[in-house]
Amino acid sequence: MADTPDVTATDGHGEATEGLLRELVSHLRANRTQLREEWARRISEARLLTALTQEEIFSEATSIYDSYVGVLETGSVEALQDYARNLSERIIPRGVEVDEVVGIVLLLRDVLARSLFEKYQSDFDLLNRVLDAYEPAANRIANTVAGNFVGERERVIRQQQEAIRELSTPVLQVRERLLILPIIGVLDGQRARQLTEQLLRGIRANRAKVVVIDITGVPTIDSTVANHLVQTVEASRLMGASVIITGLSSDIAQTLVTLGVDLSKVNAVGDLQGGIEEAERLLGYEVTQGDYLPSEAR
Amino acid sequence: MAVPILKQGPVLIASIQTALTDTDVLQLREDVMGQVTRHRSRGIIVDVTALDVMDSFVSRSLRGIAHMTRLRGAETVIVGIQPEVAFAMVQLGMKFEDVQTALDLEEGLALLRDQLKEPLTGAG
Amino acid sequence: MQAESRIAIESDADVVTARQRARELAGDLELSSTDQTLLATAISEVARNITHYATRGEVRLRVIRDGNGREGIEVVASDEGPGIADLERALQDGYTTGGGLGLGLPGARRLVDEFDIQSEPSRGTTVTLVMWQRVAGRSVRA
Predict the structure, then answer these.
(1) How far is residue A280's CA from residue C71's CA, in Å, rounded to a whole number?
(2) pLDDT tens-digit readout, A124-168
(3) I want to staple A208 with a disulfide (CB 3.0 to 4.6 A). Which of A3, A179, C66, C114 is the partner?
(4) Could you say which DSSP state residue C53 is in?
(5) Who contacts A257 (Cβ-Cβ below 8 Å, separation ≥6)?
(6) Interface touch B84/C110, C-beta < 8 Å
(7) Which of C79, C61, C78, C65 is nearest to C24 (CA)?
(8) Which value, to the nearest 10 degrees, does the dihedral of the CA atoms of residues A247, A251, A255, A256 take?
(9) Which of C37, C48, C108 sits opposite B84 (nearest CB)?
(10) C139 touching A (Cβ < 8 Å)
């Protein structure tokens, strides 16, 4: 077994290391075709990137390989970062997962490492020094690509969550003919309008007679949103549904009064539970000593 | 085109099928008043499910019909206002505060039944 | 899809034609059904004024585009009728309490994104409405 070699600078700045990296780069360039093919083959064998076609995998493999070599050559990951970001934007919508991206980068690292083993197998000492130069760079590359992918994924997920929050209304049908719309968070005019539209469609779909709009979770509203609230009540009435507003804080009540909203026209009940009870009363459900008497029962 | 008006017991049902011209609206008012008088109807349902637009003229006219029939002892219920139409009406400022509304024909009949306190089923 | 449509307004059946054509155009631009209804209702309001007060007029529909590539529908309802002397009053709300002139103009204005009215007594009236596509928040690429 050879002596432990001198530990040269691991960030590529030492002269010896630079020389080794240069040799490494020319080796990788010289064997580009064969190593790239080997890598693509191993990607398929490992069943990674199944969302992409063979042509696509090969094309990306080429770009990644060249970027990889570029990082080893220049010591800078900037170009790789740009490419990684671009790649992530393209493959995330195709359903490629993090483990696949990490997987293929590690596979490339392995393919290149083995090729180095093969080349320097007769000089173990040299092999160690080459690996000392190669490994940090290879790890940096893996981190850059994986890190970028994960970052992009998180950005997309955040965006989707935002969109879901904005667009989906938790219009809940709790009982027959009774809908509950709990509103949470700060509303802007656009979201308020979306909620109104969805509530009205919900009234039709669920044949609701009573709607409970709970604004306990709404800290403040501006005049635009207040108007939307009033309009929602009026439009619901046109569709034959009466509206109960619950969780009306004194702040918001004050805002409504200041805006000239006639609060006497708004059926407001303190909390959601109370609102539901009032709604059930309006629907003719009466709970008397455990009995349940819908008004339709004759 | 005239709006068909059906009689179901003490209740009339006017089903608006297509967009109404001014003439149609005036005709509807005349027909409704005529039928209410003839049958001594106690209620009238105006079904606007098929209307994709209810502008201020149509809304005012329906309100007018509701007021007139009330004077003749018949309560009007407008049914079938669609979500987008309800939204537009409210933006326009048409509120129908003194006119009853219900989701659809079934609800309208149930409402009248409760108010008139008599069954409305069976052949009219 | 036609880029521009002209509908002569001579009877109230034409009002219906105009707003249905607008609805079609709006559908082509993928405006939401709510926006389509708002636009059709606004057109009904202003086109009815033509039939009630001016006897004859025209509604012109056009697809327009802004600097950001957003598309919209422009409606120009014009007539050579008596015109409106007091425009300010016509645009006031609360007709039933004495404000406005019962022309449905303040209401129509609330329904659309852009509203303009030009009128001169004895010369006629031109009302321009615009409804834009709603563009959901676009992601900004890093």
Answers:
(1) 46
(2) 999 999 888 888 888 888 888 888 888 888 877 877 776 676 555
(3) A179
(4) I
(5) A263
(6) no
(7) C61
(8) 30
(9) C37
(10) yes
